[in-house]
Design a protein that fits this description.
The complex is a heterotrimer of chains A (348), B (250) and C (70). Chain A has 2 domains: 215 residues, Thiamin diphosphate (ThDP)-binding fold, Pyr/PP domains (Rossmann fold, 3-Layer(aba) Sandwich); 112 residues, Rossmann fold. Helix content of chain A is 43%, strand content 17%. Chain A has 12 helices and 13 strands. In chain A, helix 2 links the parallel strand 1 and strand 2. In chain A, helix 3 packs parallel to helix 4 and helix 9 packs across helix 12. Chain A is globular and about 75 Å long. Chain A starts with a helix and ends with a helix. Chain B has 250 residues and is α/β, with parallel strands linked by helices. Chain B has 10 helices and 10 strands. In chain B, helix 1 packs across helix 7. Chain C is α+β, with helices and mostly antiparallel strands and 70 residues long. Chain C has one domain: Alpha-Beta Plaits (2-Layer Sandwich). Helices cover 14% and strands 23% of the residues of chain C. In chain C, the strands form 2 sheets. Chain C has a two-stranded antiparallel ribbon. Classes of the chains: A alpha/beta (348), B alpha/beta (250), C alpha+beta (70). At the A-B interface, helix 3, helix 4 and strand 7 of A face strand 2, strand 3, helix 2 and helix 4 of B. The structure holds thiamine diphosphate (TPP), iron/sulfur cluster (SF4) (3 copies) and magnesium ion. Chain A: Its EC number is 1.2.7.7. Chain A: It is an enzyme of class 1 (oxidoreductase). Chain A: Keywords: Oxidoreductase. Chain A: One of its GO terms (molecular function) is 3-methyl-2-oxobutanoate dehydrogenase (ferredoxin) activity.
């Protein structure tokens, strides 16, 4: 199944019944898939007049108690930032997909990881956090999409799925399982007309700084809980690795190929692949820092996740960086060459 | 003696933050009267704006969802699509509706979203301190048009209601004024009809209300109401611009 | 005989905008000498001429006026 279709199908099977989006390459297959499937399952598909409108439609649907999502690509995600900040502030669950393309500006439509900062630091305003998942395989994309709706409901938060055109276009065999049983607490915050109950308000305006501070700390406690409960990562041949590559998404697929090559030449190389970019799997990296001699961060950008790696490593092990921004997708041999270079240079 | 007029139940019994003589408070009251009279409390949801009416939820005793500046019609669309049997309305100022939210508004109207917008035109940005609005009158002084609005610099008052009336998705489009008790009663009738149009599933309904902002017009409430009638109604003629029920009769 | 009316003003809500005075055909309302909690001179009944037409209540932004007739 193709990545974008897997994503759409997982959303439908996760009970998503509202999709709002605005076309942008390279993710148009998502709204196209949803426009077909929503009709079949009696859900809502609506092409908004912009990304801003679409995310606000998602907000309205989420406040109605529906599982709602939107998808876009980098320039469109920039436009959604206001809405993301509001979703976070109002504690409304929603799933936002970013099929990252080359940038800044219009950039190009090739696979890129240039939106890491925007995704993990909150491109929107204010003191908020949002879980960000970066799947690397179609099955994982399917599983994570399903899970994202549960995470969104459990923590009452927007959740982002960050992929790129490669992830969207790749075709892999997958197992289309149904939604796992996750108990979602009753949605006692939704607005559906105050029939036989006191009226409700969904708002983020808190004019009193002391009250606002309280709200910020309350959100922070939730973010701390997510930081504790949500980190996910994959480790590949890290046990005896002297050089550990850290890469996510498409870059991690490439890096895995490079690790296999290096291993076949006898080099003790491993890969750590963050699956959640926020919360970042710091603990896992800190543990590896006790074993490995060198971290090599590979990103399809000029270097963004490297900051988080350095924060986790705390200077205990050197961290090198290799990046290919702009939509360039290197082949595993290229990364293997970089590995060899460091291997010799650092006398590992 | 029997009571012929009393405060509506849905209007919480609290003082509001609006300035003396502000039109927002009158419109709030009219809406609440209708929610009571039409028995809508259990199925109505309001999306107020960023603007002086941002705190509407402090006064409306029914469900209210905040919106980012200008996004009301998109949020309302999300609500209505998710809950087609509820009555959804946005409450928006001129900046919210006709500047930052123009796209959301026009497209919701054009899609024929079965929602209602109450559009409070006071020709200024009230909340932020009286800056120029898209609806500011030619020659009108505001804090960002200190020499008066000049068409060669700031363009013309935007008549978004007239624009919306041209859209097939809009079923009922009307402009009213708060200038005197008779016109306030007309405004209430118009809002009532707008809700009825929504309930009938006929399409988008819009009530623009010409409303005073004494504070930023820098006049007394009395003078503000006079200005409404003498000046604003000249630039913005009141009346029904579109009514799908009238069309059906023909 | 003309209808007889009576208004009750919730003075705590009044902001002395004078709109009720402006529209009352019978000059039945005036601003009081005293101040309310917010520091306004709230409206009060001026004389017994009220007809219960409710124009003041329709106008009042604060929904502070209740009108009886009979
Ligand atoms: C994105 C954004 N830009 C600007 C503002 C600041 N702001 C709040 S209300 C407002 C204008 C209000 O004017 P109007 O919509 O006419 O409402 P009024 O207060 O006059 O009723 C502005 C500019 C904001 N809240 N958000
Ligand atoms: S500033 Fe103007 S619109 Fe805002 S509350 Fe005061 S009078 Fe009303
Ligand atoms: S009810 Fe009519 S007559 Fe009586 S005080 Fe009000 S406006 Fe005047
Ligand atoms: S209209 Fe209402 S607020 Fe204004 S003076 Fe009369 S009673 Fe007071
Ligand atoms: Mg305004």
């Amino acid at each position: 199944m193709k990545g974008t279709d897997a994503l759409g199908e997982a959303a439908i099977r996760a009970g998503c019944r509202c999709y709002f989006g605005y076309p942008i390459t390279p993710q148009n297959e998502v709204p196209e898939y949803m426009s077909r499937r929503m009709q079949e399952v009696g859900g809502v598909f609506l092409q908004g007049e912009s990304e801003i409108a679409s995310i606000n439609m998602v907000l309205g649907a989420a406040a109605s108690g529906m599982r709602a999502m939107t998808s876009s690509s980098s320039p469109g995600i920039s436009l959604k930032q206001e809405g993301l900040s509001f979703l976070a502030a109002l504690e409304l669950p929603a799933v936002i997909v970013n099929i990252n393309r080359g940038g800044p500006g219009l950039g190009n439509i090739a696979p890129s990881q240039g939106d890491y900062y925007q995704a993990t630091r909150g491109g929107g305003h204010g003191d908020y956090r949002m879980p960000v998942y970066a799947p690397a395989y179609v099955q994982e994309l399917y599983d994570i999409t399903m899970k994202s709706f549960d995470v969104a409901d459990l923590y009452r938060t927007p959740v982002m799925i960050l992929g790129d055109g490669m992830m969207g276009q790749i075709v892999e065999p997958i197992y289309l399982h149904e939604r796992p049983d996750v108990e979602i607490p009753p949605k006692d915050y939704i607005l559906d007309g105050a029939e036989n109950r006191p009226s409700r308000i969904i708002k983020s305006l808190i004019l009193d700084p002391v009250e606002m501070e309280e709200h910020n700390w309350k959100l922070k406690r939730k973010y701390d809980l997510m930081a504790h409960e949500l980190p996910e990562w994959e480790e590949f041949m890290t046990n005896d690795a002297k050089l550990t590559i850290i890469a996510y998404g498409t870059a991690a697929r490439i890096a895995k190929g490079a690790v296999k090559r290096a291993r076949s030449e006898g080099l003790k190389v491993g890969l750590l692949r963050p699956i959640t970019l926020w919360p970042f799997p710091e603990e896992a990296i800190r543990n590896l820092a006790k074993k490995t001699k060198l971290f090599l961060v590979f990103e399809m950008s000029t270097g963004q996740m490297i900051d988080d790696v350095r924060l986790a490593v705390e200077g205990k092990v050197p961290c090198e960086f290799y990046g290919r921004p702009g939509g360039v997708v290197p082949i595993p041999q290229e990364i293997a060459r970089i590995i060899e270079r460091y291997w010799l240079q650092k006398e590992l | 003696m029997k009571i012929v007029y009393t405060r509506p139940k849905c209007l919480k019994p609290v003082p509001n933050h609006y300035c003396p003589g502000c039109g927002h408070s009158i419109i709030h009251r009219l809406i609440c009267e209708l929610v009571d009279e039409m028995n809508m409390r259990g199925r109505i949801i309001c999306i107020p704006p960023a603007g002086c009416a941002v705190l509407a939820y402090n006064y409306f005793d029914f469900d209210v969802c905040e919106s980012a500046h200008g996004r009301g019609c998109a949020i309302a669309t999300g609500f209505k699509r998710a809950q087609p049997d509820r009555i959804i309305f946005t409450y928006q100022g001129d900046g919210d509706m006709a500047a930052i939210g123009t796209a959301e508004t026009l497209h919701a109207a054009n899609r024929g979203e079965k929602i209602t917008s109450i559009f409070v035109n006071n020709a200024v940005y009230g909340m932020t301190g009286g800056q120029m609005a898209p609806t500011t009158m030619i020659g009108q002084k505001t804090t960002t048009s200190p020499y008066g609005r000049r068409t060669e610099v700031e363009g013309y008052p935007l008549k978004i209601t007239e624009l919306i009336a041209t859209l097939p998705g809009a079923a009922y489009v009307v402009r009213t004024s708060l200038a005197n008790p008779a016109k306030i009663r007309e405004t209430k009738k118009a809002i009532k009809k707008a809700f009825e149009v929504q309930m009938a599933g006929a399409g988008y309904s819009l009530v623009e209300v010409l409303s005073p902002c004494p504070t930023n017009w820098k006049v007394s409430p009395r003078e503000a109401f006079a200005y409404l009638e003498e000046k604003m109604e000249k630039e913005y003629p009141i009346g029904v611009m579109k009514d799908y029920t009238a069309k059906k009769d023909k | 005989m003309a209808a007889k009316g009576k208004i009750t003003i919730n003075q705590g809500l009044c902001k002395a905008c004078e709109l009720c005075l402006t529209v009352c055909p019978d000059e039945a309302i005036r601003l009081s000498e005293g101040l309310n909690e917010k520091g306004y001179h709230p409206a009060e009944t001026a004389k017994d001429s009220c007809k219960g037409c409710a124009l003041c209540a329709v106008m009042c932004p604060e929904a502070a006026i209740e009108v009886c007739r009979g």
